[in-house]
Every structure is written in C-alpha cells, then in structure tokens.
Amino acid sequence: MSANESTKRLGLLRSLLVHAALAVVGLIVAIPLYWTLISSVTTNAGIFATPVQWIPPSLHLENFSQALSAAPFGRYFFNSAVVGVVVTATTLVTSALAGYGFAKFQFPGRRILFVVVLIALMVPFQAIMIPLFVLARQLGWLNSYAGLIVPGAVSGFGIFLMRQFMSKVPDALLEAARLDGCNEIQLFLRIVLPLSRSALAALAVLTFLASWNNFLWPLIVAQNPDILTVPLGIVQFRGSYFTNYTQILAVSLMAAAPVIVLYLVMQRQIIETFASSGIKG
Questions:
Q1: Which H or E run includes 57?
Q2: Could you tell me where the beta strands, DSSP code E, fall in the chain?
C-alpha cells in the first residue's frame, strides 16, 4: 500500500469518526426536544406512562389554545418583546461605542478600564443581585420596564466582542478617511459600523436570546401581573396540588419558537464572528 493511499484512508477514517461523534451529539440534543414536542400534544398521564410513548396514540392540539387562554400570554409576549428589543438596541449602541474607543483610541487608563470590563465578565450575577435590587427599589424601578431594561443596557461581553472585532479594522483605512475630511462621528457611522455588521448581528442575536429567556432578574423586580414576561408566565402553571405539564410544554414551545427562528436565520453571522474575533488580544 502506498503512502498516498494510507493517508487517504486515515483521512477517511478520521472523517467518519468525526461525523459519528457529531451524530451522537445531535441525537443527545434532539431526543429531549422531540420528547418535549410529543409531550405537548399528549395528556399528563401520557407523559408519565411507562414505557415512554415515543409516538402519542392521539394528538391533543387543544393544549396550545388552552395554555394561551389560561393566562394573559399575549401581554407576556408583548412585555418580553419590548424588553428584548430595547435591551438589544441599547446593548448594541453602548457596546459599539465602547468597543470602538478601546480598539482605536489611546487615552489614560485605557488598559485599566478594559481590565475592569474583563473582571465584570467574571462576576456572577448572583453576587450583585441583591445590591442591584436595592438600587432599583430606591430608584422606583420595581414593576416597571425601566427595572427590566436598564440593568441589561450595558454588556461587558458586548464591549469585549466589539473591541476584539473592531481592532481588526485597518488603521490605514481610518487615516485615509480622516484625510478625506471625515470627522470621528462620520468615521464611526460610515466606515466602522458597516464593517462590523456581522459582529453587531451576532451580538444582537445573543443579547436578544439572553433577554428573552431571562428568568431570575424579572422574577425579582416584577411582581405586577401586567409587567410579567414569558418565563414568569410559564411558572404560573405550577399549582400546589396539580401541575399541568402539557400546557407548560406547549407554552414553552411557543416561547422558544421566535428565538429558534432568529438563531437559525443568523447562525452564520454568529459563527463567522467568533471565528474571526476573540483570538488576538
């Protein structure tokens, strides 16, 4: 056997092993999703039946309509959408501005401030949860959109991501634009932002996903039913003596649908952004 044929066989074997491993991982992820889907169209007794019913004997599509009518989920979806859109917009603005400043400007304390941003990434939310709640109460932000939105308006991760991406914008391009008469605002809006569209798109998707699925902070700051978000609305299906799991799963699927579609549409931008940034310090 020649060396060339041996190399080809090793490459084929490696490819088969990689695809087999990916198939196993895909099954591990897909099986719970499939179980959630079939459980949302069956009965509570069918969920706990043994052995597991991988194909439900009958479809109970009324679980979805009953779940929506059991609570004002239209209001909850509206609240989650408002919070998610505003948090995403403010995060993009603050992250782009701060990232551009850290990437392309030299000023006293630049490195120290960037280290502070990195340290903020390492602090778990649970460590600042109580002080943040006390501050929100003192400002009168409980049971309000401000209390849900403002704490998430700035993202240390977003600043880090945009700084890493914008640092790759050629300085020669910016200098040429300055020589052509562009001021710093025009430079930022007309050159830097268009070149950073993929990073901004990835950050927008990740921020919206995190805001839409956020449970802990809305649980603390929102007690008024009119300000509840979707994750808090799902909790209302839990009762002291009975929990309607089929309706919980039905609403969970409907709540997950927008973010799943958004991720599928924008997944290429997310992958390209992380492949091209975050490596060079």
A1: none
A2: none
CB 84 within 8 A of CB 211: yes
Q: Are 248 and 132 in contact (CB under 8 A)?
A: no
Query: What is the reported pLDDT for 125?
Result: 87
Distance from C-alpha of 104 to C-alpha of 163, rounded to nearest angstrom: 9
**Cα separation values, 75 from 82, 145, 207, 246, 259, Å:** 11, 13, 21, 21, 18
Sole residue written with tokens 């200098």: 175
136's CB contacts (< 8 A; 6+ apart) are 142, 147, 151, 221
> What does the block give as tokens for 278?
């975050």
Average pLDDT of 211-228?
Answer: 90
The pLDDT of residue 275 is above 90:
no
Q: Which of 190, 199, 187, 191 is nearest to 163 (CA)?
A: 199
Could you tell me which of 9, 8, 136, 153 has the C-alpha nearest to residue 88?
153
Alpha-carbon distance of 75 to 138, in angstroms, equals 27
Amino acid at 210: A
pTM of the model as a whole: 0.80
Q: Largest Cα–Cα distance in the chain?
A: 78
Fold of 70-276: MetI-like fold (1.10.3720)
Instruction: For residue 211, count CB atoms less than 10 angstroms from its CB and return exposed for 0-12, middle for 13-18, buried for 19 or more.
Output: buried
pLDDT surpasses 60 at 54: yes
Could you state, in order of their start, the residue ranges of all structural domains in the chain? 3-39, 70-276
- Among residues 159, 56, 57, 164, the alpha carbon closest in space to that of 116 is found at 159
